[in-house]
Amino acid sequence: MHTPHPFDLIIGLDRSDRTADLWVIDTRTGTHTHQSIGTAPEALRQWTEALHAAQPTARVALCLEQPALNLIACLETYSWLTLYPINPVSLQSYRQALVTSRAMDDTKDARYLAEWLFHHHAELRPWQPEEPRTRLLQQLVAHRRAVVDERTALTNRLQALLKQYYPQALELCGDDLWRPLATTFLLKWPSLQALRHARPATLKQFYYRQGSRSPALVQRRLALIASAVALTEDEALVGSYALRVQLVARQLQLLTPAVKRYDDQIAKVYAHHPDRAVFAALPGAGPVLGPRLLVALGTQRDRLPGASHLQRQSGIAPVTKQSGNQCRVHRRYLCAKFLRQSFHEYAKESILHSRWAAAYYWQQRERGGSHHTAVRALAFKWQRIIWRCWQSRTEYQEEQYEAALRKSSSPLVARLDQIVVGKSPLYTRVNKPE
């Protein structure tokens, strides 16, 4: 018996910078049509309104390749349109299964997307947007991380530049070159030649105003300046590098307050989120990792029916490859990197705040695992706990979990009393010299 298709029209959309190719399958008649439209918001709106006006009662599904958040944000406003975002790696594999030459064409990709949805709609998950507060928090934490990554890149660039002509600045500016002390110092004295003209009293006053008030540290820096020898006296080289360093320093000065503004916005939204209590109770979550863990799970409980779904989706679960008598297990490479980083960084931080987490990490290191392997194993374990708390909307209790470990005679129990909260076994146990 023929089962009617759940959609009347299925559309595959493949987008480039200027045009979008559309492949439309009418499941009622079996006809295929192709058209190309502009990607401007006005063109997209004109097309969607014309489609709905021509067939107002049609059930329409549209399949498009990720990442296309701006396109999804534009199309999700139409309640009559069901969206199916597709991973680009999945589309690539589907294309290669049909085209052995691996030739690419926008029109054909639009057709593949439409046919994929036509044949496999039951296995694909439609787009379901999160509620407004969670969506706002998702965007804020993602953009904050992008700004922090940009700050890190500029810091590394600044460090590389200073090594070329002014290595003394790496000690005179402190450990973090993005901090106001370092950027202000380099804007005032971008070279050793310029620094030589500064009086000791002026330098002392500068460090004091920037919060560096240790007499021993200030005296050590002044002694370094007095005995410093320039790497080069070439004015052309020093002058050109100094201009570049000042440019990077000004860029860093703009990024630091930007991170603070993101932190303020995140704290405001996070404070009024209904799931805040669940994630704020996690040891070591804090104002940065707490919101990141919250948006990693979201508010749609049916989206992750089991902890294993979270472990695979986040990339923490390992991948097993078995062929014949060979079996190989390795970490997952293809995944949402920011999502995986959130759980990895939280697991690392939890070692300082949870006795059982520190004991588990210590156990994994003694078994021969590297630092990151042990942290991933701990994140895998944490995800089962976090998922359970999230599903039941209950706050995590460290004492309750330790009691469960004792009741089950876990091998971690013997290590709990040896753990000092706030001190990582990475330094106090594993790497301690004989």
What does this structure look like?
The protein is α/β, with parallel strands linked by helices and 434 residues long. It has three domains: 112 residues, 2-Layer Sandwich (Nucleotidyltransferase, domain 5); 133 residues, Orthogonal Bundle (Helix Hairpins), CATH 1.10.287; 140 residues, no CATH class. Helices cover 58% and strands 10% of the residues. The chain has 20 helices and seven strands. The strands form two sheets. The chain has a five-stranded mixed β-sheet with strand order 3-2-1-4-5. The protein has a two-stranded antiparallel sheet with strand order 6-7. Helix 5 packs across helix 13 and helix 13 packs across helix 15. The radius of gyration is 28 Å and the shape is globular.
List the helices and strands and how they pair.
Elements (H helix, E strand, L loop, with lengths): L8 E7 L3 E8 L4 E8 L2 H14 L5 E6 L3 H7 L5 E6 L1 H11 L7 H15 L11 H34 L3 H4 L7 H9 L3 H4 L4 H10 L5 H13 L7 H37 L4 H5 L5 H12 L9 H7 L5 E5 L2 E5 L6 H14 L4 H12 L4 H22 L5 H10 L5 H4 L8 H6 L4
Parallel strand pairs: 1-4, 4-5
Antiparallel strand pairs: 1-2, 2-3, 6-7
Helix pairs in contact: 5-11, 5-13, 7-11, 13-15, 14-17, 15-17, 16-17
